[in-house]
Write a structure and sequence with these properties.
Layout (H helix, E strand, L loop, with lengths): L1 E9 L7 H18 L3 E9 L4 H10 L4 H11 L3 E9 L2 E2 L1 H9 L9 E8 L7 H12 L3 E2 L4 E4 H5 L1 H25 L15 H5 L3
Parallel strand pairs: 1-2, 1-3, 3-5, 5-6, 5-7
Antiparallel strand pairs: 3-4
Helix pairs in contact: 1-7, 2-4
GO molecular function: oxidoreductase activity
InterPro entries: CE1759_FMN_reduct (IPR023932), Flavoprotein-like_sf (IPR029039), FMN_Rdtase-like_dom (IPR005025), NAD(P)H-dep_FMN_reductase (IPR051814)
Keywords: Flavoprotein, FMN, Oxidoreductase
Length: 205
Amino acid sequence: MSTRTLVVVSAGLSVPSSTRLLADRLAQAGIEALATRGIDATAEVVELRAHARDLADNLVTGFPNTSLRAAIDTVVGADGLIAVTPIFSASYSGLFKTFFDVLDRESLTGKPVLLGATAGTARHSLALEHGMRPLFAYLRAVVAPTAVFAASEDWAGGDATGAALSERIRRAAGELADLVAQRPRALTADPFDNPTPFEALLAGQ
């Protein structure tokens, strides 16, 4: 079996958080969907909460520190990305947006992405379409058709509500798996693999 890596970006602020809970369920469903397509997959999680101060520093200095650089490299090197945010004031969180603001604008080009969001009420569900999807379209990622929104009632709304959420997760994960399976494995280029010889630098080449 070939191997792929799914990276989960979770912008939840509390511990534990419904955002991370949804992210974990999407990741597990993605791994299972890839397995049915003959692809072994692993999942790595980037918790943006741990990088809040790093991101603020990056905004004012223009450079990520070592910890944030590792998180960015993990995301850029993923075969598939699962991006999940809480919804505040009818849009994605500032922490979530800041992370994608500091990425190189070409770094997600062609990358399969599954979108997810959580909020206290279903009234925020359209934020996935009017906020998150345009963001990743701008970054030229390939976004799965189904995005997954979970409101408070999805976690405590009884069997029928829980089944509806599970079905959305299953369908979205299947779409992500199809996108990942069709794309060659992501290769993270090391900028130091082919350094310019010192003699060439001296010669101005």
